[in-house]
Specification:
This protein is an alpha+beta fold. 32% of the residues lie in helices and 37% in strands. It is elongated, with a radius of gyration of 34 Å. The relative contact order is 0.11.
Length: 265
């Protein structure tokens, strides 16, 4: 019948498929930029985290090694170059090391500043690696010298009450209640030595040779037999102590069997 209106047929609403929504996201420039920024940020965060972790592990290992040699607390730094890159190449161009200044081996009150350039960790034969240069400065205070003598030199050490350095004539006076010993620090065969010039007082006369052996025994434990070919090459007196320069050039890093302190490298 013409008066009747039939309802018009309506198509069901078209639903967007999941893959179409994903394609639409990738067609949106803003979405693409956000995705790129997120990926870059995640990658950058991973690099930063890896750098911090690598520096912590490498610094801890180096500090443990030097603490074993020096027998004191140590702080170390690997310079400004990213450590992850240094680890990948096995080459460390700039290393700085500083001890706390409590002692160096048996020497009380001794502080060490050290700088190493171009350390390469490549094991060959009896070497764990090589370094181009190592320069160190040891500062030994008057008070530290006195305490060291008191702790390590039989008889005479117990009589020491003060140590006085004389930069003008390059001598050290070891002062006791009954007398004094005058010595001159020297570099002998790459190590530090205290050469006794005279002994006065103590209620009796003593030749310098009588106190030389215990001083030699002490100084030989400080700078002799250092690893990686490190040798003392200069000594200078200040108003407050003694400064010793040490160095090594184109040296090899010993394997653990040669020096157990290097076992953790």
């Amino acid at each position: 019948m013409h008066g009747l209106h039939h309802p018009q047929s309506q198509d069901p609403p078209r639903q967007t498929r999941p893959n179409e929504r994903g394609l639409r996201v990738f067609r949106d420039p803003l979405s693409i930029v956000l995705i790129v920024v997120i990926v870059v940020a995640l990658g950058f965060s991973a690099l930063i985290g890896g750098e911090f972790y690598a520096r912590h592990r490498a610094t801890s290992a180096l500090e443990k090694l030097v603490e074993c040699v020096a027998e004191d607390r140590v702080s170390a730094s690997f310079g400004a170059q990213p450590l992850l890159l240094q680890l990948m190449t096995g080459s460390f161009p700039d290393i700085s090391i500083e001890t706390a200044g409590n002692q160096f081996r048996e020497a009380k009150g001794m502080k060490v500043h050290m700088h190493i350039t171009n350390l390469r960790m490549q094991r060959t034969g009896n070497s764990r690696g090589t370094l181009d240069s190592l320069d160190a400065e040891i500062s030994w205070s008057d008070e530290g010298i006195k305490q060291t003598l008191q702790d390590t030199i039989p008889v005479f050490g117990g009589l020491m009450t003060a140590v006085k350095t004389n930069p003008s004539d390059g001598t050290i006076e070891l002062l006791g209640g009954l007398g004094s010993i005058t010595a001159r620090p020297r570099i002998v065969d790459g190590g530090l030595a205290l050469h006794v010039l005279n002994v006065t007082g103590f209620g009796f006369t003593l030749p310098p040779e009588s106190v030389q052996p215990p001083l030699d025994a002490l100084t030989s434990t400080l700078t002799n037999s250092l690893p990686a070919g490190i040798r003392a090459d200069s000594v200078q007196l200040t108003d407050t102590g003694v400064t010793v320069g040490l160095s090594a050039r184109h040296a090899s890093i010993p394997v653990a069997q040669a020096d157990p302190c290097f076992a953790g490298m």
